[in-house]
Amino acid sequence: MSIIEIENLTKRYGRNIGIEDVSFQVEEGEIFGFIGPNGSGKSTTIRTLLSIIYPTSGKARIFGKDSVRYAAEIKQDIGYLPSEVFYYENMKVKDLLAYSASFYRKDCRKRIYELADIMQLDLTKRINDLSFGNRKKVGIVQALLHEPKLIILDEPTSGLDPLMQQTFFQLLKEDNRKGATILLSSHILSEVERLCDRVAIIKEGKVVAVEHIKALQEKKHKIIRLEFNEPIDEKILMIDGVYNVSWDGVKADLCYRGDINSFIKVMALYNLRNIWIHEPDLEDIFLHYYQKGDEG
Ligand SMILES: Nc1ncnc2c1ncn2[C@@H]1O[C@H](COP(=O)(O)OP(=O)(O)OP(=O)(O)O)[C@@H](O)[C@H]1O
């Protein structure tokens, strides 16, 4: 069953296009990534989906219900973390969370303490004494405290240190294992790769691809630099999947798409001084796979 169905959603801000004709579905139990560079329309899509802003055209359904008409009812079962969080500065964290919990028809106290413990959040502090990262944690606890069926997170990891990001991802995996569906936006591909089953890729307001992470990884090329201890014949680089070679006898820069083991096995036959392997970043993937003139 689709938990989220987005159909031809368009949002214009006056003359500016926020998003255009965005369509994708998120199935029950999925961790779905929504990825694209800054300003590509991730927040606009999410905010339109949640009826925080209204679409210019198109529609969305959540839990099979129209997202505008049934907005209030649907929100009982959604946890949402906005990309930027604003709070009443003078409030204590625990009072703020109790206030958030009061909107839901269930007792959330136990879960608030559990989440604060996992995220190492001090509930007794005042909001204005918290760092940016700790404010983000408040937003995370706020989003998860009612154990929602659908969790929507807009750039959730900005401000969290790497260890805390890991803790947070574990927490999300656990909630997902218990049945929650998750939609998570990010501009960092590696982050989405670690967590998600499928991704929608958005660029300049349009969804350019919806892919299983595995398929995306198979399409991804690596950027490789080789340095040999002695001059080598360029022919050794005639390997399936190698392209864009630049070669000076002892050094080569190239792109490789395929199983890295096959490549390394060939290179191990030669006297290598060094090898550097880079993962392309998101922009690079767009350039290589989603533009005309793509080589494969
Ligand atoms: N309130 C607004 N008024 C006018 N234009 C807006 C408004 N909000 C967003 N936009 C424009 O819509 C486009 C999409 O912005 P959006 O914030 O949805 O992107 P994003 O992918 O979430 O980016 P980021 O990661 O930087 O938050 C951008 O061109 C942005 O300038």
UniProtKB/TrEMBL annotation:
<keyword id="KW-0067">ATP-binding</keyword>
<dbReference type="InterPro" id="IPR027417">
    <property type="entry name" value="P-loop_NTPase"/>
</dbReference>
<dbReference type="InterPro" id="IPR003439">
    <property type="entry name" value="ABC_transporter-like_ATP-bd"/>
</dbReference>
<feature type="domain" description="ABC transporter">
    <location>
        <begin position="4"/>
        <end position="229"/>
    </location>
</feature>
<dbReference type="InterPro" id="IPR050763">
    <property type="entry name" value="ABC_transporter_ATP-binding"/>
</dbReference>
<dbReference type="GO" id="GO:0016887">
    <property type="term" value="F:ATP hydrolysis activity"/>
</dbReference>
<dbReference type="InterPro" id="IPR003593">
    <property type="entry name" value="AAA+_ATPase"/>
</dbReference>
<dbReference type="Pfam" id="PF00005">
    <property type="entry name" value="ABC_tran"/>
</dbReference>
<dbReference type="InterPro" id="IPR017871">
    <property type="entry name" value="ABC_transporter-like_CS"/>
</dbReference>
<keyword id="KW-0547">Nucleotide-binding</keyword>
<comment type="similarity">
    <text>Belongs to the ABC transporter superfamily.</text>
</comment>
<keyword id="KW-0813">Transport</keyword>
<protein>
    <submittedName>
        <fullName>ABC transporter</fullName>
    </submittedName>
</protein>
<dbReference type="GO" id="GO:0005524">
    <property type="term" value="F:ATP binding"/>
</dbReference>
